User: What shape does this take?
Amino acid sequence: MKILFISSEVAPFSKTGGLGDVAGALPAALAKLGHEVKVVTPLYATVRQPDIAPLGVSFRLRFPVTELYVELYASHMAPGHQVVLLHHPGLYGRNGVYGDQYGEFGDNHLRFGLLTVGALSACQALRWDPDVVHLNDWPTGLGAIALRRGYAGTPLARARTVFTIHNLAYQGLFPKRVMDELGLPWDLFRHDGLELFDAVNFLKAGVAWSDAITAVSQRYAQEIMTPDLGCSLDDFIRARAGKLHGILNGVDYSEWDPSSDRHLPAHFTPEDLAGKAACKADLRGRFALPKQTEAWPLYGIVSRLVDQKGVDLLVSAMHGALAEWQLNFIALGSGDSRLEHSLNELRARYPDRVGVYVGFDTKLSHLIEAGSDFFCMPSRYEPCGLNQMYSLRYGTVPIVRATGGLDDTVVDVGYPAEGTGIKFDHFTRDDLHHALWRGLHLYGHPEWLDQVRRRGMRADFSWERSAKKYESLYQSLLR
Assistant: This one.
């Protein structure tokens, strides 16, 4: 198959969250299965990859408000896997993907309208007709409409479309005046189309006009059809439930593998866990935790500090846990200044038991995964989540709320023959406090703990597994 994959961010060229990881890894896995994959994304000013080269191909796109000249650059990642970057300095030559320190860019409707239309026009310019067009989140939501309207009567119109919802909370809402600015027909501005609350909703367009819809875990596919997590679109998505599929994201085990991780001071495997103790000792040393606490369990977290991740709940529960029990806690992350402050307050209150690093450090994130005994993910909601799957591979028992991909990937230790982690149901301090206590109880039974660790390390959440499910979905659409 020929697969066009359109994404607003693609690792290692650009990344603000999990979407960038998916757009970097899933196309690579599809190419390894023998498919020809082109990924199209903007050439942002922040892109620093050295192997990008101009293709010598350019074209003009006309919008009612402007005419845009686009040049194509490319990076050949592997056989059958090419990333094509759209070069337009006026729209993409800024220090940010969606916005900067002053907020979201006011012309994002045009920036990402250009991404979708530009990706399809790039295929025409390269004389390459895809069988499947895979769209991702709201920035690409107009792609299915463009295929049906703007490219009707061309070979591109034969392509089938898949739209993946990575996070329904971000929908791409714009004033209805953008209909005229983008040249969108007004007959599309209706309740079963682009309109929501008298505004244009890009994500809704992807849901309405794509041939198939996917969410990044089976549980999340169910949750977005409920009022609690449907973000005002639950009834709209329920009406299209027959098109909706839950396909779990995968893990890049070439990057996340404790037997070969270049960021670790020692390596380990399910058969030999000795290196994990060395990683814990190194992690403790980084934060100068005193020797008298070295036998205590170590709880860790690596996270964006936003309300979705439940960091506020974790800090509240940790205050109680640290007051009652003997444990250490280490946190790495940045984001909401209020949450950064609450973590630093926790460290100030328990300076010999808590370590906090505000910011991001790749090496430290790997060390926390390897050196912690427990990894905390008390999310309000979590479409898929990756860190719980990293934790399983590193023999670090995840403590997660039973939501989205966290529920799909972690089996509670209450099932002795299958358990890989600790889950709690309700987003309350008491529920999380009890889950932290269950970790302490598990730590007090070393043989049981080792069984849980080894079972998690042997679980398979590889991208190859996920890619085969997407392959099957594409084939079903083409049939």
The chain has a mean pLDDT of 95. The chain is about 35% helix and 20% strand. Residues 274-461 form a domain with the Rossmann fold fold (CATH 3.40.50.2000). Residues 401 and 426 are 7 Å apart (CA to CA).
